[in-house]
Structure formats: C-alpha cells, structure tokens
Write a structure and sequence with these properties.
heterodimer; A: alpha/beta; 5 helices; 13% strand; globular; B: alpha+beta; 6-stranded antiparallel beta sheet; 42% helix
Chain lengths: 108, 380
Amino acid sequence: MTMVINIAEEFSSHPAGRYRKDGKFSGEKFRDEILVPALKSGETVTVILDGVRSYGSSFLEESFGGLVRVSGLEKSELKKHLIIEAQDEMYETFQRRALKYIEDAKVG
Amino acid sequence: MKKLTEKYKQWLLTRAINESRRKNHKKGNRSQITLSQWRRNFVRNLSQEEIENELTPSLLKNGVKISPPEIFCLDKNFEEVAFLISELRRIPIRSGKLKSSNNPAVNIFRVTKDTRYIDFRDIKEISPAAALVLAAEYDRARRLSNQPLFTILIDEWDPIVRKRLDDIGFFELLEVDNEIENSETDEDVAIQKFISGNLSDTEGSDKIIIAVNKLTKTLTEKGEIVLNSAVGEAINNACAYAYPDWHKFSSPVTKQWWLTGSADVSNRRLKIVMYDQGLTIPVHFPETKKVEILSLLGGDDDGEVIKKATKLDRTSTGEKQHGKGFQDMKDSIELNNSGRMRVISRNGHYIYEKGQKESSFTNSFPLHGTLIEWEIGVED
C-alpha cells in the first residue's frame, strides 16, 4: 500500500519556516503532524511537492532532514518507504534538495 | 442661574486650567508636556485643516526643520538617507517641551524650538527600497505610540514622490487621504503596498511577486516560486534571528519585517525589498573569531561579515546560524538572465550580481536593521 501526501492540498500551498514558533505552516509541524505519522503507519509514503508556491530551505530541511535528526528515523528505512515526487520539472530542484537534506542529516 | 457670557466662560476656563495646573504641580508634574504627550493629547484630535492652517505655520516658524536629502535613494545616497532615518527615529522618543498658556485651543499650536519636523518637500526622488525603510520607520513609531505621526504641506511635495509613498501605503500610516491623480505624474514604476508581519509567511510575498511580475513579465512560473522561496527565507531569518531576547536595542523595536515590490514596466525589471529593524547580520554572525572581533570593533568590516554570512554551508553548520537561507537567495538570482541581490546590514553592503564578481563594502553610517533587495530583469 502507498499513502500519498500532496503538500499543497493537505498542508499548505505556502509553507514557510522551520519551527512552529516561526509560523502556521512550518517544517516542524508538517513533519510531526503529517509525515511521521504516515511513515509510522508502515506504508510507503509518496510526498508530492507540486503546487506549492515556496520551498525555503528552512522548511525543507526541517521537514525531511528532521526525519533523521529529530524523529530518529533510519536513512535506510526512508530510502525504502519514502518517495519524494516532483511531477513537474519545476519542482525537481526542491526534490533534489529534500533528498540531500535527508542524506546529510546527522542523528542528534 | 448666572448667564454664561463670553467673559464669564473665559474666566471659568482659566480657573479650571489653573486648578489643573496646581494639582499637577503638587504631583510633581510641570505644566510642560512631552512631545509624545502633546501628540497623544492634541494632534490626533486635530483635523487636517487645523494641521494645515494652524499647526503647520507654527511648526515652520518655531520648530526645527529636519531636511531630508533630495535624492532619497539607498543606491545613490546611502549615507544621507541612513542619517535621516536615524534622525527620524529620535523624534517620537525625544521629549520636546512646549510652552503653556491659559487657553489650550491656542496652546496646542505653540511649538517650541525643540519640536522637530521633517519637510518632505525637499525630496525630489525616492526609490522603492528607501520608501520602504521610511514607511517602516513611521509604522514603528505608530505602533509604539499607538497613534500616527503627521506630516505637513503634503500638497507641496513632489508629485512622483507623493505617488510612490501613496502606493507603498505611507499615507495609510498617517491616516491621511492622499488625493493625488495618477495623471499628475508620469510614473512608469508601480510600487506595491507594503506588507508587514512577525511570522514566516510566503502568501503575502507571493501576491506581491505575482503582481509586479504581471506588469513586467520578467519571471517564469518557476522563477516566481524560486524567488518567493528566497524571500520566504529572508523573512524567516528576520523572524528567527533579528530580534533575539538577549539583545538590548538602543531604541524600542516592534519585531516586524516589512516587504514591498516594484515594477519598472518599460525596462521590464522588478524589485522585491524586505527590511527588518533587528540587530543586523554583523552583530549576529560569528563565523570566525576574527570576524566576531571585527564585528565588535564597530563596523569596520561589516561588508566582509555579510559576504561571509552568505557563504555559510547550510548543511554543516547547525541550524542556529543567521544566513542559512542565503543560498536560496543567490539561487533566485542565478535562475534568471539578469539579476542582482543587495544586502545592507548595519554598516555593511554586499552585492551579488549574476555574471559579476560579488562585492562588499562598508559605509561610514549604519542602517538600523537589515535590508535585502532582489532586482531581476529579462536581460543585461
């Protein structure tokens, strides 16, 4: 089974900021309230980046790098169960960044 | 009941004022009041006509005129603009003492030599970035004192300057209707009304980018998104780092950011400008001991500090570094055929321009806060 999360439709078309204190649609909020629960369900999760009007590095790093740094998920497990998808070419830059943030993240 | 003649009414009024004075004197309060009290008590109750016909002549005769530079532009005349902003910041805080008289209706227009005012008639040219800094300063004063500042002789301002300030939302800060006809100016630059906030938000900046890009047709859809991502990072930096609790500001701040955009339609160039009044990058950024020491010395090398801050490796330095999103900001320039990003923070000035070597320098006079400007065109 695959669970699909469309950020623009299920979270915000204007996500911004790293922490909850930074704003309503922060990376921390997206990770903790949507991404981690989905991944912990055991299903493969596909995150669709398309349709969003801004992807700052603070949001992306906290959302995806934070899965390893903060939520303690294994990189090897994320490679198996997390798909970050850019359906339109214009979102490929952000897709690469999100994957790199996971790769570069260090636990603790 | 005794008939209320004019003479008797005056006597009652005088008695009430004297009584009030005696009470104030007993409490240790002199009859003189501060400029901010004066504004709070009187100016907000004045009509525009009273300001124009009574207050203005008194200010012109007795007040201290602060002359803004003719060229109100951070590019062409940084030091004088920064100095004016610094002077302006002193107005709401400084206590100008007023003479008193028995009749408050007369007294309120009596201005002493300590009362300062800015004569906007002197400004002949104003850039969007400088207009935003000016508006932010008036917004800050308005928020702190819970009332608008006032200006005088609006009808005599340069029409294009007035139009630009009107566009950016300056007159709303003054709570004045600026009835200027577009036909009075031959303006080819459209400025968006500024937005402000204290949280990370990219919806408002998106609207501004879309609006200016609609006029210039400079950016692709991807270009809009990348630019908005960069602006969002700048806003996030302002929220996260510009106003730390541990920093003691020399004057009160409202912990806001301000943002505007402008479209130069004939040249197909757009600008987005973000400004905060925070502690600045040279104060906050301690990349190396050397830079930190230079920073503490008082701005000798602020330009170099900003340049180093923009080179921060965003994946290896931890998450509490100011400047983490600078790479996003540079990316937004690289994506386009022609573009320039400028960062002014305290005394530092840094320029990143596509196809050019990055440059930095240090001004002799500081800006209160950090200003980031993106200017993007279709070609060189």
